[in-house]
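In response to reviewer comment 3 from the previous cycle, which asked for concrete evidence that the modeling workflow produces usable outputs, we include below a single protein chain processed end to end. The sequence was submitted unchanged, and the resulting structure tokens are shown without manual editing.
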Amino acid sequence: MSFAGRGWPRVPSVGQATARLRIVALGLACALTPGVARGQTSNIVLRIKPKVGDTLYTRFEQDVSMKDTVHVHGADTTMTMHTSLLLLSRVLVQSSDETGTTITTITDSVSLLSDGQPAEPEEIRRAMEGQRVRLHIAPDGSAAVLEVPPQLSADIRAVVSGMPATLPDRPVSVNQTWQRQTSLPVVGASKGYAAVLRATYRLDSLSSDGTLAFVSMEGTITRDPGAQPRSNGLRVSSSGKVKGVLCVDRRRGWWIDARATIGLVSTLVPAAGTSATPVRMQTDITQHMHTASVH
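The workflow returned the following structure tokens.
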């Protein structure tokens, strides 16, 4: 969730982890209705409402450590990989109505390293810069893709369309919790959804002037081993935990800071009749998104 720099993390696909890291879940806005009285701790409405005409500048960082273990010839063999991603982007707020907000995100700069070395050829990295994705963000935080570049549509549509609804559907009080259950796409899967995020959110506090809202979350990610296999017959079962903290600027109507950690253990079972052996994969992800300024 994916907060995915903007939004919650997705479940990595087998054999595509490095390539898919360049696709980052686009940032979601979340806001409280402006004008809450000083000291108010109840009947607080959380919703998306950025100001039309604003441009938000965001910085997204992600670190992923992966360890694959396979049992071969009576012994375990382990391979490790570390990737880091830095993404600088702009979010243009274009229109808003009772159904939500329409935004366009523009990628300004991308840096993706794998074990300290560039993970993509320079021409591919440059081609990613300047790409635009147009989204409609619903009041509960979920996203619908309106327009994407053709070369990115398959990956981005899968990831962004799975952005979870993070906001409550009713007014809440400080210290109150709410639950969300969301299907997550597995990029590269043959079709459909196979992973589920179950999360509990909590409005921890407001700043003294009511401008900032502080939210925490804890959740689990699971993928049923009996779910739809990939096109090559490979089946993946996964389980893991997600934990994060968010800071929302209610006047801007946008996240100003979001941090998340994800720990995921997956077992990859080859198709029946093949000579390949199962692989156990441990994935640890840290994400940090910061909104630097709004104009």
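The first strand starts at residue 31 and ends at 32. We consider this sufficient to address the reviewer's concern, and the full set will be provided in the supplementary archive.
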